[in-house]
């Protein structure tokens, strides 16, 4: 059947609300390179997410933010420390950012029953002397584990950068909690809960570190036209910053709308006895609604039942990065726990303006899984 309900339908601010910001560009003629709109966006986001100024720099994407944070914090690999430890259960961007900074990804399995890497769960046989970097992930917008990973970093001397791409709302709910000695990268992609179309940011307690991150994203240049460190072009344009500013102007209304969607999902799930099976905000970001099946077979039956009703589903992280063709071809080993977990978790359609009748349809199809 034709898909009538996509898994995610982004909704960025209406063009009318972006225009007042864009109108400043004609006279100013500053279009990028951390212009006034990007600076304004940084200042507003820093207060919202960290509770104080000078804690955040914007980036052209979440991947650029990760790459810049890696270069600013760990630098390019030195000596034998060429490996970046990465949980397999993430989006491929985590691995590509590490590779762009010169590291070879070493994918790590999850502890049974967990869906994220924690310092206490690391496998005992890690090649610790070869690790130049650890890249934990806050899955689906959970709160990054700043305290745990800062302690790990202090104890081992191994630099950590957290991929918290989807965690905008978790940070907003507890300003400052994610800010510490470990830089945190956010994505503002159109599919995330706060968006500039394409964009991202690094959040970090280290002010000099943030200058280095901005430097990395500006070809290694800062204050002068001289390239003094490894870099690339990772800057957020003024056009994208304008979208972010317009979004923040409507933030309260949008958060309220998303709460209503989650509440509707919860109610519909309860009506079908599936409340325990759904993962919804505030536990995860509002750009996701996840169904947690009993087994891979149960998840497959759910996806088929939904597909028959024209409803799209998605494994947002595939079966893990290590299972993607490109990484398998480069020799990534299978990760049994990751693959077991990934096969059980499926993304259901969600949108800020998804109709209650569509949510009801989704739950009906879920409840009917395996009935054919
Ligand atoms: C979205 C996402 C990214 C990539 O962000 P972009 O802005 O698309 O570069 C990286 N990691 C995770 C976990 C994500 O969900």
In short:
The chain is of the alpha/beta class. The chain is built from 13 helices and ten strands.
Total number of beta strands: 10
Q: Tell the overall outline.
A: globular
User: Which radius of gyration do the C-alpha atoms yield?
Assistant: 21 Å
What is bound: which ligands? pyridoxal-5'-phosphate
Please give the order of strands in the largest beta sheet. 1-7-6-5
Q: Kindly name the structural category.
A: alpha/beta
H/I helix tally: 13
What would you say this structure looks like, in words?
This protein has 372 residues and is α/β, with parallel strands linked by helices. A four-stranded mixed sheet has the order 1-7-6-5, sandwiched between helices. It has a three-stranded parallel sheet with strand order 3-2-4, covered by helices on one side. It has helices at residues 15-28, 36-50, 62-73, 93-100, 146-156, 168-173, 207-216, 238-249, 251-271, 296-308, 325-329, 336-344, 356-367, and strands spanning 56-59, 83-87, 104-108, 131-134, 162-163, 184-187, 200-203, 278-279, 290-292, 345-347. The longest helix has 21 residues, at 251-271. α2 packs across α8 (238-249) and α9 packs parallel to α13. The model has no long low-confidence stretch (mean pLDDT 97). The chain has 13 helices and ten strands.
């Amino acid at each position: 059947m034709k898909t009538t309900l996509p898994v995610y339908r982004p909704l960025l601010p209406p063009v009318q609300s972006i225009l007042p910001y864009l109108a400043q560009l004609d006279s100013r003629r500053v279009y990028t390179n951390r212009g006034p709109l990007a600076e304004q966006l940084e200042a507003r986001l820093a207060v919202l997410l960290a509770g104080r100024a000078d804690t955040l720099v914007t980036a052209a994407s979440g991947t650029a933010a990760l790459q810049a944070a890696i270069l600013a914090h760990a630098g390019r690999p030195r000596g034998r420390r060429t490996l970046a430890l990465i949980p397999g259960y993430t989006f491929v961007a985590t691995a590509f950012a590490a590779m762009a900074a010169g590291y070879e990804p070493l994918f790590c399995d999850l502890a049974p029953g967990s869906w994220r890497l924690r310092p206490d769960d690391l496998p005992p046989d890690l090649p610790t002397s070869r690790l130049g970097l650890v890249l934990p992930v806050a899955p689906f917008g959970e709160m990054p584990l700043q305290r745990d990973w800062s302690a790990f970093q202090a104890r081992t001397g191994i630099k950590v950068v957290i991929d918290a791409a989807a965690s905008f709302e978790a940070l907003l709910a507890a300003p400052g909690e994610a800010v510490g000695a470990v830089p945190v990268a956010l994505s503002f992609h159109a599919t995330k809960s706060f968006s500039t179309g394409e964009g991202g940011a690094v959040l970090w307690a280290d002010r000099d570190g943030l200058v280095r991150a901005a430097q990395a994203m500006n070809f290694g240049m800062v204050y002068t036209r001289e390239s003094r460190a490894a870099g690339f072009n990772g800057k957020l344009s003024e056009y994208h910053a304008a979208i972010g500013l317009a979004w923040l102007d409507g933030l309260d209304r949008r958060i309220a709308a998303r709460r209503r969607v989650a509440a509707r999902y919860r109610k519909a799930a309860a009506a079908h006895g599936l409340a325990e099976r759904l993962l919804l905000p505030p536990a995860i970001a509002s750009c996701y609604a996840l169904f947690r099946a009993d087994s891979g077979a149960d998840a497959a039956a759910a996806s088929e039942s939904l597909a028959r009703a024209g409803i799209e589903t998605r494994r947002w992280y595939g079966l893990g990065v290590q299972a993607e063709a490109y990484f398998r071809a480069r020799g990534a080993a299978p990760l049994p726990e990751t693959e077991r977990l990934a096969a059980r978790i499926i993304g259901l359609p969600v949108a800020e303006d998804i109709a209650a009748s569509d949510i009801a349809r989704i739950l009906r199809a879920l409840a009917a899984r395996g009935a054919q």
